[in-house]
Structure formats: C-alpha cells, structure tokens
Amino acid sequence: MVVIAWLLVPTAVKRFSRLTFFEVQAPLELAPSYVRDLQDYWSLRTRSQNDLIEAGRDLARLTASYELRVQENGELRAEVARLESLLSLPTFNSYRPEPARVVRRDFNGWWQRLVIRKGRNYNLTVGAPVIFSGGVVGRIAEVGAYTAVVEMITSPGMRLAASVEGDQRPISYQGGLNAAFAAPRGVVEFVPLDLFAAPNSPQKLVTSGLGGVFPPGLIIGQMVRLEPSTDGLFKSGEVQLDPRLSELAEVTVLVPLAPEIPPVGTPRP
Predict the structure, then answer these.
(1) What is the pLDDT of residue 124?
(2) Can you say whether the dihedral through the CA atoms of 48, 50, 55, 59 is positive or negative?
(3) Average confidence score pLDDT of the chain
(4) Hey, is 260 helix, strand or coil?
(5) Which of 140, 163, 205, 214 has its C-alpha lying 20 to 30 A from 40's C-alpha?
C-alpha cells in the first residue's frame, strides 16, 4: 500500500521531498568532516620541534618550486594571449578553481558518487568538472546549500569525449562496472584501428575538450587493452584509472566563469 501511495504522489512533491531530505541530511554529514579536521589539527600540535623544523624545510622547498611554476605559467599564458590576438583566435572559456574537502562516499556505490563540503554557498554549478592532482575525478551532479554530489569518472553513467595524448581523434570513454575497493577501471569505444595498447605499453588517455564540459588535456587514465569491435570499424578496450581515486580527501571544482557581455552597441567581430 505504501508503494502504491508513493507512486500516486505528484512528481513535484517527490522532488521537493528529496531535496528537503538532502538539505536536512547535509549538516549530519558535515559535522564528522569538521571533527576529523580538528583531530588532525591537534595531532599535528603534538609533533616534536624537530619534526616541525623538517616539515618547514620541506614546505620551503615546495614553495620555491611552486613560485617557479607560477612564473612559467604566467609566461605561457601571456604567450597564448599574444598568439590568440595575432591569429584572431577565440579565447577558451576560463574556470575558477575551487578546492573542496570530501565529506563521504557510499560503500554501496563506492565508485559512483562522493559528497564534497561546498555547494551553492561557493557558487558551484551542476555539470562543473571536478579534478585532483592525478586528473579527472568527475563532475557535479547535484548542488545543495552547503554540499554537492560528484558523479565520479568510474561510474557507468559517466561518459565523456577523450583522445590519446598527442592524437586529436575523438574517443568515447565510459565508466566501468567497478567492485567496491577494487582497482578502478573504465572502458573506451570508437578507438581508431591504428592505435594499439597493452599492459606493457599503455596509452595515456586525456580529455579532448569536445562537449564543452572538461578542458582539453586532463588525464583520465591509461589504456591497457584494445581489441577490434564487433563491426570491425573501430576498437574498444579497457582503461586503468588512478588508484588514488579510492582515497580522495580533497578535490578541486572548476567553476565556469560567465563570459563577459559586451556593452550595447558594441560591434561583433
């Protein structure tokens, strides 16, 4: 009887109930995350002075390395802007990086979704790419007031346009059927016949930039196996993803920046 009554409830009421439950549940998920951060803080306070000195030295080395990278990045950006202006090329859409802590992930759907500790309070949007140091994590599927749900790249519902590094031809990537705590994997389709991959000679798979969601060049994983498809026109195969996806504690959301609207009366190029 309960199931039949629920099926008769209007869709708008179901959606409202689901969103309300999501917002009410969010504080319960955030509290343990903040408690863990507090525990980490006090555990660091118990470190000896020698440990702190050594950590300070390591931090100074990393800071010097990052300062050099920032200078190189600035020079490359200036060169790209100069070439775009010289060749009258359109400027690529820009993104604002927004780091966020991971709150939790379901054991039943370990490789499908995770919850992060930022939402509409940081202007996150549905569909925004999510990355980490190893490449693509996924994209924002739902946004709440203080949390957001990320659909991971390992999820079977995740599809995106990819390409082999150094090759511009598009390839279709999709998340695989991954068991909990097993090595993360995905699958590829429509791979050109002249491309080859094996465990001892993998091919790096990156985002192609097609579709306008993910910027080009982000690492997806390594193609470790390719076989001819049933139609004989393309190949399909297996992609080995970064194992660090199982232990993510922090990710970065690429929030798209709204394009500048030219003033009224400004002639279009």
Answers:
(1) 93
(2) positive
(3) 82
(4) coil
(5) 140
Q: What is the mean pLDDT of residues 63-70?
A: 85
Q: Any idea how long the chain is?
A: 269
Query: What is d(CA 253, CA 97) in angstroms, rounded to the nearest whole number?
Result: 6
Instruction: Tell me which DSSP letter residue 201 carries.
Output: B
Cα–Cα dist 47/50, whole Å: 8
Cα Rg, the chain, nearest whole Å: 22
Across 111-119, average pLDDT: 90
Give the HSE-up count for residue 76: Cα atoms under 13 Å, Cβ half-sphere: 6
What do you get for the CA distance between the two ends of the chain, in Å? 63
Write down the pLDDT at residue 264: 44
Q: What's the sign of the alpha-carbon dihedral 93, 99, 104, 109?
A: positive
62 vs 88, which has greater pLDDT?
62
If you count DSSP H runs as helices and E runs as strands, how many of each does the chain have, helices first? Answer: 3, 12
Tokens of 252: 């970065």
Structure tokens at 70: 């920032």
